[in-house]
Design goal:
Strand order of the largest sheet: 3-4-5
Shape: globular
Radius of gyration: 24 Å
Largest sheet: 3 strands, antiparallel
Distance between the termini: 61 Å
Helix content: 40-55%
Bound molecules: carboxymethyl coenzyme *A
Length: 428
């Protein structure tokens, strides 16, 4: 008997099965042979994919217990310190750090695709002034598929590369235009002389000056935040990207689906929810009362806890350092004291210790964005921009993996047995 296998006895039938184990996993379809009748094989029941690997991947590694995050083998701490977002995006997408000429070509291609069609601008104009920018982003990135019908050629590597340039390049423009729309301000067009984060700041904040000069500390802070958010293996939005992409739709539609998944408060919307929570708490003195309520089941401590990390999220550590640098330039965010007190109390409290709930990436990122002058509803948008590189890398990996199929989970049907239609006048 192979040692890399699982022996299972079905107590309903007394039959024994040997199921191979590969890379620490059994194939769920191998369980289908375990049957009590001709039709129904055994299935696994796993809402929320708590213990189901949906793919094999070479992109991002997380050890949630140890608080480790690596892209293509490189520790996040090293990338945050030494790399740039565009270089990291290249690494995430193509598997290796670029050479100098590769990076120059990549940067050129991303820079020169940043303008959006004027009709997309008109589409943004059509939104109400207080439309949530994430709603605008989801709509406009989906709409890009109608401008680039060649995006449908998903099995053509050259076409995939073109859509990659467009998506990574245009997401900041869509995001910044959504922001300017909410302020009723004229759109600020991309400036190709600036870096990726510098240009984003230019599109957000340029007023009447001829040339916008990003503050180097803020430019660096945005770049590092983008690196930290580039990928995070099979999270909810990435799963949406892969799942929708498995229908072989174009990448713009899949990115729209992924961005929609990111919008929710349990995922990328958490940074916005953290700020709203901190404001609702109001002062350091109210923290113990708030924590008591959370423990009593009244709401959650937003920005705490993670499906994978059962230790301090390594991204949260790095963000805390950037926060200090940004506060030096922009002044200390008064909500920081409430956040620090929450962290202090929660990390000593049995409820949080027992459940291994630590601050996650969203706990401090919102404070930085707010200090930079961005409104809360822009926070998930700031998550979506850098995550686009991860979504595309995961999408491409899915498309080129011969094991992958149309995503279509099973269900366990517990509804009514067959019954006859009752005319409306005969119903009780
Ligand atoms: N505050 C209070 N209790 C919590 C929290 C929290 N933030 N998170 C989990 N718990 C409790 C939960 O009530 C449960 O307790 P019990 O066993 O007594 O029922 C236990 O911890 C396990 O929680 P769970 O909901 O089964 O765990 P999960 O893995 O499904 O949840 C999570 C992960 C991120 C949805 C959750 O921790 C949460 O809601 N956190 C707040 C929202 C948040 O910050 N989200 C951002 C995640 S990081 C960004 C990203 O990658 O998307």
């Amino acid at each position: 008997m192979a040692s890399e296998s699982l022996t299972v006895t079905d107590n309903r039938t007394g039959k024994t099965y040997e199921i191979p184990i590969k890379n620490g996993a059994i194939k769920a379809t191998d369980l289908f042979q375990i049957k009590t009748n001709e039709e129904d094989g055994l299935v696994t029941y796993d809402p929320g994919f708590m213990n189901t690997a949906s793919c094999q991947s070479k992109i991002t590694y997380i050890d949630g217990d140890k608080g480790i995050l690596r892209y293509r083998g490189y520790p996040i701490e090293q990338l945050a310190e030494k790399s740039s977002y565009l270089e990291t995006a290249y690494l995430v997408l193509f598997g290796e750090l670029p050479s100098q000429s590769q990076l120059a070509e990549w940067t050129h291609n991303i820079t020169y695709h940043s303008i959006i069609h004027e009709n997309i601008k008109k589409l943004i104009d059509g939104f109400h002034h207080d439309a949530h920018p994430m709603g605008i982003l989801v709509s406009t990135v989906g709409a890009l598929s109608t401008f680039y019908p060649d995006g449908k050629k998903i099995f053509d590597a050259k076409s995939r590369r073109d859509q990659t340039y467009r998506l990574i390049s245009k997401m900041p423009t869509l995001a910044a235009f959504a922001y300017r729309h909410s302020l009723g301000q004229p759109y600020s067009y991309p400036d190709n002389d600036l870096s990726y984060p510098g240009n984003f700041l230019n599109m957000l904040f340029k007023m009447t000056e001829i040339k916008y000069k990003p503050h180097p500390v803020l430019e660096k802070a945005v770049d590092v935040l983008f690196i930290l958010h580039a990928d995070h293996e099979q999270n909810c939005s990435t799963n949406a990207m892969r799942s929708v992409g498995s229908s072989q739709v174009d990448p713009y539609s899949s990115v729209a689906a992924a961005a929609a998944a990111l919008y929710g408060p349990l995922h990328g919307g958490a940074n916005e929810a953290v700020l709203r929570m901190l404001m609702a708490i109001g002062s350091k003195a109210n923290v113990p009362e708030f924590v008591k309520k959370v423990k009593g089941g009244e709401g959650r401590l937003m920005g705490f806890g993670h499906r994978v990390y059962k230790n301090y999220d390594p991204r949260a550590k790095i963000i805390k350092e950037i926060a200090d640098q940004v506060f030096e330039v922009k002044g200390r965010n008064p909500l920081l004291d409430i956040a620090l007190e929450l962290e202090r109390i929660a990390l000593q409290d049995d409820y949080f210790i027992k459940r291994k709930l630590y601050p996650n990436v969203d706990f401090y990122s919102g404070l930085i964005y707010q200090s930079m002058g961005l409104p809360m509803d822009m926070f998930p948008v700031l998550f979506a921009i850098p995550r686009t590189s991860g979504w595309i890398a995961q999408w491409e990996e899915m498309l080129t993996d011969p094991d992958q199929k149309l995503a279509r989970p099973k269900q366990i049907y517990l509804g009514a047995e067959t019954r006859d239609y009752v005319p409306i006048d005969k119903r009780k």
